[in-house]
Amino acid sequence: MTITPLMPVYPRCGVRPVRGEGCYLIGEDGRRFLDFASGIAVNALGHGHPHLVKAIADQAATLMHVSNLYGSPQGEHLAQRLVDNSFADTVFFTNSGAEAVECAIKTARRFHYANGNPERFTLITFSNAFHGRTLGTISATNQPKMRDGFEPLLPGFKVVEFGDLDAVKAAMDETTAGFLIEPIQGEGGLKPATPAFLKALRDLADENGLMLILDEVQCGYGRTGTFFAHEQYGVTPDIMAVAKGIGSGFPLGACLATEHAAKGMVAGTHGSTYGGNPLAMAAGEAVLDVMLEPSFFTNVKAMGDRLRSSLEQLIPNHDDLFEEVRGMGLMLGLKLKVDCRAFVAHLRDNHGLLTVGAGENVVRILPPLIIDESHIAEAIEKISAAARDYEVAA
Ligand SMILES: *Cc1c(COP(=O)(O)O)cnc(C)c1O
Fold first, then answer.
1. What is the rounded distance in angstroms from the CA atom of residue 283 to the CA atom of residue 113?
2. Residues whose beta carbon lies within 6 Å of some atom of ligand 1
3. For ligand 1, mutation pick of 10, 38, 101 (most atoms within 8 Å of CB)
4. pTM for the complete prediction?
5. What is the set of domains in the chain, with CATH numbers?
6. 337-360: per-residue pLDDT in tens?
7. DSSP states of 134-196 as a string?
């Protein structure tokens, strides 16, 4: 037997975290890391946030799970808070991002079905998108590493070049149901859509009675300095998938929709055994308690600006390594001129800073949203030192 008990689908690195403290992770061997990866944009409140920990512990002792056959005071309350703070009128809770996107896809298809247009089932999606690892969500991207060997994939997706409006128009036909897009591509290389492009998709959707679905699983929930990234674009979706930061480490996701868009999602059409359980709702409430404090997003914006300008200042000194800084708020990417995986490993192993690689040789910098100046100074010091001895080594 050579296969590992843990299915070997991840190329795991040598860091083996066993404890977290705020913005730091502590490995099995006692080594401390500054965590500017945050579980890939998940741990918005860092590790061990007392309000979140207490909410989960209290709820675990009170009521962890009941079936969705029963009334859900916990779910109703959190859904109402999301409705009050977003474009949406209704919310379906899931356990992950991919499930939230699945619900969004189903909601869009069902909208057209309910309108008597079941032939409108095709979503136009974008090159290098990442929407999750279910069969449905891998069908919505063109990335071979996620799709190869899993065919036949789900019909009903047409992938066009990210940002190419003419390609979108050319792809539209009588089967088009709508558009599915990340306002800022995460895995694909920290690429923000232009405001003009998102606005054009909104207009096309309005003119043709189609659904605009935003995947804000990574860029939503405060990451860019507003509750949702689309607020900064002045574009409102019909349907939106969120996850990652929503539970700050507790597995939780949500599909948000307007009443109009959710027209087909009537009793019996969708479900989830665990989705929206009281424990998850308690985590979601605790995250919102912290995030909806008046200064929270202001701080994300301020820290994002500071981190961005500090990163930009590193570029002239290391222009053989660094090309540009991308992203918004605390969803930042440092585009490299060298292999990003090697540099991410160097930062981690030799300088104790955790970051994440992405497409186009971009180092993703996704700190907890609760960082202060000292964490930024420490990270910049580490990146600067890493750039210096990377050059010596190279
Ligand atoms: C992470 C991610 C997903 C998938 O979320 P899971 O919780 O891993 O299923 C979907 N869309 C985007 C944009 C993501 O970043």
1. 35
2. 96-98, 101, 130-132, 182, 186, 215, 217-218, 243-244
3. 101
4. 0.98
5. 17-49+295-393 (3.90.1150.10), 51-291 (3.40.640.10)
6. 999 999 999 999 999 999 999 999
7. SHHHHHT---HHHHTTS-S--SSEEEE-TT-HHHHHHH--TTEEEEEE-SEESTTTSEEPPHH
